[in-house]
Amino acid sequence: MKFKQRINAFVQLGRFLGTFSSTSEKLDGTNTDPDDYRDDVFYNGMLDTITRAKAKNGWFTKDNIDFALSSWSKALSRASLEEWCQSYSIPNSVDPKTVAIVMAGNIPLVGLHDFISVLLTGNKVLAKLSSNDNELLPYLTQYLISIEPEFEHLIEFTEGKLENFDAVIATGSNNTARYFEHYFGKYPNIIRKNRNSVAVLTGTESKEEMTMLADDVFRYFGLGCRNVSKIFIPKDYNFDAFFNGMFSWKDLINNDKYINNYDYNKAVYLMSRSDLLDNEFMLLKEDEGYSSPISVVFYEYYENLNVLQKDLEKNNSRVQCIVSKSGIENEISFGKAQTPDLWDYADGVDTLNFLLNL
Description:
By secondary structure, the protein is an alpha/beta fold. The chain has 2 domains: 3-193, Aldehyde Dehydrogenase, Chain A, domain 1; 196-332, Aldehyde Dehydrogenase, Chain A, domain 2 (3-Layer(aba) Sandwich). The protein is 39% helix and 17% strand. It has helices at 3-18, 41-56, 62-75, 78-85, 112-120, 136-147, 174-184, 207-218, 239-246, 256-271, 305-314, 351-356, and strands spanning 26-27, 30-31, 98-102, 124-128, 155-157, 167-171, 189-192, 196-200, 228-234, 276-278, 283-286, 296-302, 319-324, 331-332. The protein has a 7-stranded mixed β-sheet with strand order 10-11-12-9-8-13-14, with helices on both faces. Strands 5-4-3-6-7 form a 5-stranded parallel β-sheet, sandwiched between helices. Strands 1-2 form a two-stranded antiparallel ribbon. Helix 1 packs antiparallel against helix 3 and helix 2 (41-56) packs antiparallel against helix 6. The longest helix has 16 residues, at 3-18.
């Protein structure tokens, strides 16, 4: 299969995903119009698949699945795919290597980037899905094969032991990473551990920026590695602006799984006599840690941005991205944490380069 065929297939997949967004987007100069797909068997099948995914995983709400599909639709535009690939020499044909992908299940389609990367480089996917997210990708694979049948012999899903592979990409917790390193250490590998994202605030942020920060905190209920789980703030910071921004997500209180976590964490902290700031649907706790529980955001004071930047560099292995407008190195804009570009690699490891050098 030629490289151009692979690109064309993923562009078509992106257009298909766009039909499940609440708004119709223009990609490559064409309308992603749901009406174009109403009678398509795959369109109706995808609606059923989304229903099953929601039923199986209570964190996969309609809003979160819609957001994931819309984000991937935009990422898989022809312009985005070509910009991503232009820095690499991706061959038209290769002797494909089998790459085992152990996928997480914390947010919808969290393993799709690895899946696309392996196929785009002409290699074969051997995927082991999380039981929390095992509906969406297999169905989208059926659609992808209907577009480009040559993908069929390059994609395999397994529920059993991973065998007969040449390289591994595995994503999990710090605990599972030790397991991955033990079993997969002899293979070329990318093994990802726990990471969290942070925001560096100065107190000069606008109301709109604080509202966008709320998206970075609460999208996917805070379950993603790109969700902001900690804020760094200057001394004498006024929390009113922060809480006013967070209020845009107040409807989280209506989600039983989320509010149960809020109630539980609040009870635990109160019993341990921890000082808390509380707005009735989220908690702020002063803490040096980076990984906060669901419904909780940690905060820590800083005195000097240069010193803070050095501290963040020391803790680089714990930080996925930094949301800020302070001028700190590698910062991203408010509201952009959960809409990464294709070249914003998890853990800063260049997946395409890894695959092209197998």
